[in-house]
Amino acid sequence: MEYAIQRGKPSNHFRLFDGLYLSSIGMGTYLGDLSTEDDNAMENAVYESIKSGAINVIDTAINYRAMKSEKSIGRALLRLRKEGIISRDQVFICTKNGYITNDGDYPSIDVMEYMQRMFISTGIIKSDEISSGYNVLNPNYVERCIDKSLINMHLSAIDLVYIHNAFESWHEDIKREEFMQMLSRVFEVYERYRSINKIRYYGMATWTCFRVPPDNKEYLYLEEVVNLAKKVGGKQHGFRFIQLPYNLAYSEALLLKGQNVGTEKNLTILEAVEKLNIKIFTSIPLFQSRLLSAQIPDYM
Question: For all residues of the chain together, what is the average pLDDT?
Answer without folding.
Answer: 93
